[in-house]
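Reviewers of the previous submission asked for a worked example of the structure-prediction workflow described in the proposal, so we include one complete record here. The input consisted solely of the amino acid sequence. No template or homolog information was supplied to the procedure at any stage.
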Amino acid sequence: MTGDEDLTKRLVAAGRTARRTLTRSLREATVGELLAGLAAPDPDEPADVYGDGVVTRLEQRVAQLLGTEDAAFFPSGTMAQQIALRCWAGRTGNPVVALHPMSHPEMWEGGALSLVSGLRTVHPTKDPRQPTAEEVTDLAEPFGTLMLELPLREAGFLLPTWEELEALVGAARERDAVVHFDGARLWESTVHFGRPLEEIAGFADSVYVSFYKSLGGLSGAALAGSSSLVAEARVWRHRYGGQVFRQFPQALSALAGLDRELPRLPSYVAQARRVAAALAGALADGPVPWFRINPETPHTHQFQLWLPYEADRLTEAGVRTAEETGTVLFHRWSPAAVPGVSVTEVTVTAPGLEWTPEDVEEAVGAFTARLHP
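From that input alone, the workflow returned the following structure tokens.
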């Protein structure tokens, strides 16, 4: 077992027995816990066959929530999004997709947009922020689709303002391009925008949403849009190998997440902002040379924390804090682009709602004591 694997194993074990945590790691859930979290099915309802039954109910629910004509279930967001962009390339006659270089297709899909779908990408900006309308307008070559990741995870779960989003969409329309939202985490964007989901999704020609990233489902995603686009996407889903024989466990867990987690997300966002403020105060009073919370006021229930230490040292300090105090403050840290600087993602969900500023201060003190013994 490598050192990294050992740290992961220890962190998962500590998280499972923790008395206090801001969120449960996705690695901590047991098979029994995941099965218990499924929506209670009608035992006499026929199991789905190639996407009917409970899967159809889920698709209808998503379309209603997003205000679209239809939605299709996919086994993964990667597949859903690639197919959406491929369909738009065929419809617009332009295989170029304008998107951020820190977006999911560029960072985590192994170049599949070009290798699998024959698409090409251009970048309105390379800065770690959402692009501006002016940058979309000034792109030097035509593009068929503007893809916006809402929120942009790698830059700190960042969202544009409502006015900026409106301008971005308008700039794409002026370039005769369609707009696709990578909305894997769109569910929690309503607080920042101050708008309901259907109004946000109404800006786009198509929207992809995830069922596990914020809703706690087993897996799976949906692509929502017009009836004709979704019908075409279903054809490509079969061609890509996504027409799975039975998917009712994923659909039941997604429905449970929509019932259980979706109404709670605004409270998670509000608590994340309180936690971020308490973290800033506690770290400012502690022994760390400097820190950065990004964004300073979180846009969603997730944000980044940057510290000037090696990632393994920070992860070890966090593991020891969890093991010795029963409190999980941070999960894994990753090296940043600057040597000697590391970053972690802080997520606040149901377990973190009970934390007070004093709890955060105590946890930071325990962590920094093990960072600077």
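The mean pLDDT is 95. We consider this example representative of the routine output the project will generate in years two and three.
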